[in-house]
Amino acid sequence: MEIIAVYNIKGGVGKTTTAVNLAYRSAVDGWPTLIWDLDPQAATTYILRRDAHVDGGSKELIGGDSDTAELAVTTDHANLDLLPADLSYRRMDVHLNKRKNPATRLLKLMRPLQERYASVILDCPPGMSLVSENVMHAANALVVPLLPSPLSVRMLDQLFEFVTHKGWLDLKVLPFFSMVDRRKGLHVETIASLRERYPAILATEVPYGSAFERLTLRRAPIESYAPASAAAEVYRQLWREIDSRLQVAQMAPPVAEPEKVPDVAETAEPVPVSPTL
Ligand SMILES: Nc1ncnc2c1ncn2[C@@H]1O[C@H](COP(=O)(O)OP(=O)(O)OP(=O)(O)O)[C@@H](O)[C@H]1O
Ligand SMILES: [Mg+2]
Fold first, then answer.
1. What is the CATH number of the domain that holds 57?
2. For a pocket test of ligand 1, which of 44, 213, 214 has the largest count of ligand atoms closer than 8 A to its C-beta?
3. CB distance 179 to ligand 1 below 6 Å
4. Whose Cα sits closest to atom 6 in ligand 1?
5. Domain presence at residue 106
6. Per-residue pLDDT tens digits of the chain, which is 277 residues long
7. What is the pTM of this model?
8. 73 located within any domain
9. Residues near 238 by beta carbon (within 8 Å), at least 6 away in sequence
């Protein structure tokens, strides 16, 4: 099961829009997919036309014996289920803090999902909290929508520093530019300098445009109502790129058996471990 979190410390950068469209893409590709709305604003839940209600709230979810698979609801889209959020999620940190292993609780809660889903997409709230630490601990990949603003440099530095400090070397951090307006000189300059500094940034850029905003009005993934649109194509491309990065990770050679004769790859200079890929 791939766990892909759409995350940024900053708010309003396109996390929810991205999570909804990627989850739809995953479902259309044939993967049984769950999107987990982790944000008390419950925007994903709203866009997918389900009630912002979690039985027992986050207290029961984090502290009790809830089966997350049982809390999932179907959506109007084949292969795509939703774990809704509600306002009680604003206290998730408090409930996590009461656990013996507060940073690994979400991962544990996701285990029962493995029997049903091939792909879990997490729509994260902004901020750097115990919830985000749980998310990073559980996820295989962190998809980070980045505004082409000089402040994004600081955010990425903080994020990479945190991931490195925690030793999560397997976590793929996959930033991409969101809400890009290439008519703006500052966007063009910022993108060029950020790409130089962080080669891991994905090639796909999501432009600024009302076609993306309209999703909130239509309350459905873009591809479901405008499959031939440029906006739908951008998210298809983003999904393909993320998918290929994850495939590369899966195809990475396993750790060599001790008795095996070393081959060229094993005797080569070790590649410096970096969380940027
Ligand atoms: N590419 C885009 N172009 C223009 N507007 C966009 C684009 N992507 C998202 N938006 C709009 O920007 C606003 C914020 O987007 P979104 O809710 O996806 O961000 P978010 O990071 O999830 O926000 P929050 O941190 O509040 O959860 C929404 O009104 C959304 O419709
Ligand atoms: Mg959001």
1. 3.40.50.300
2. 213
3. yes
4. 213
5. yes
6. 999 999 999 999 999 999 999 999 999 999 999 999 999 999 999 999 999 999 999 999 999 888 899 999 999 999 999 999 999 999 999 999 999 999 999 999 999 999 999 999 999 999 999 999 999 999 999 999 999 998 998 899 999 999 999 999 899 999 999 999 999 999 999 999 999 999 999 999 999 999 999 999 999 999 999 999 999 999 999 999 999 999 876 555 444 444 444 443 433 343 333 443 3
7. 0.90
8. yes
9. 18, 21, 22, 176, 202, 204, 206
